[in-house]
Amino acid sequence: MNLMGGTFDDSIAFDLFAGTGVLGFEALSRGATRAVLFDILAHGVLEIRKNCEALGIKDRVIVLQKDVIRWSEALEQNLTFLRLEDLPWIVFCCPPYALWESQGESLQKMLEMWIEKSPSRSLFAVELEDKTPLELLPTCLEWDVRVYKPARMAIAEKV
Fold first, then answer.
1. What is the structure's pLDDT at 52?
2. Spatial CA neighbour of 48 closest among 15, 19, 13
3. DSSP string across 56-99
4. Between vectors from CA 29 to CA 113 and to CA 117, what angle results, nearest 5°?
5. pLDDT greater than 80 at residue 6
6. Domain range spanning residue 91?
7. Per DSSP, what are the bridge partners of residue 125?
8. Is 3 contained in some domain?
């Protein structure tokens, strides 16, 4: 979070592979206005919703049980459906490492679409395994890549 500037005032956080939802929750605690969390697993979505209730933030979080790669194929239409404010985005893309091997090109294409549709000043944080080729990162942004074995974090801002 600190690599991304530490605070996210007046932004919308998206966690494309939410798992526990912790990245979205952290973004909210650092000033994000709303969070949209995706997880494909029903039990993960239920846990995220329970945690939103316990934290008193359910009115600020949208939780979607979706395959975010497929959902992103109609990104513009789906974002319109969400009716979000026109604020910069904080986009977290931390998929299971095996997904980079099995669907790396699909992940790259998905990220390119999110970057294209995002407002200026949007931030992107992408986690990859240290052996995942950096060529899978979209070339439309200048990435700051840091190694935290066994992971690499790639951070970029859309100007």
1. 97
2. 19
3. T-GGGEEEEES-HHHHGGGHHHHHHHHT--S--EEEEE---HHH
4. 15
5. no
6. 13-127
7. 92, 155
8. no
- What is the model's pTM? 0.95
Please give the structure tokens belonging to residue 129.
Answer: 């395994």
Q: What is the pLDDT of residues 12-50, one digit of tens each?
A: 999 999 999 999 999 999 999 999 999 999 999 999 999
Cα–Cα distance, 88 to 104 (Å, whole number): 26
Whether 132 is covered by a domain: the verdict is no
pLDDT in tens, 66-88: 999 999 999 999 999 888 888 99
Identify the CATH number of the domain in which residue 38 sits.
Answer: 3.40.50.150
Gap between the Cα atoms of 97 and 153, Å rounded? 12
Q: Is 8 contained in some domain?
A: no
- Which residues, in sequence order, are CB contacts of 73 under 8 Å at separation 6+? none
What does the block give as tokens for 132?
């995942």
Region class of 146: left (phi > 0), else alpha (psi between -120 and 50), else beta: beta
Q: What is the pLDDT of residue 133?
A: 96
Domain count across the chain? 1
Asked whether the predicted pLDDT for residue 148 surpasses 90, the reply is yes
Separation of alpha carbons 123 and 12, rounded Å:
10
Q: What is the pLDDT of residue 4?
A: 78
Q: Is residue 7 part of a domain?
A: no
If phi over 0 gives left and psi between -120 and 50 gives alpha, with beta otherwise, what is residue 46?
alpha
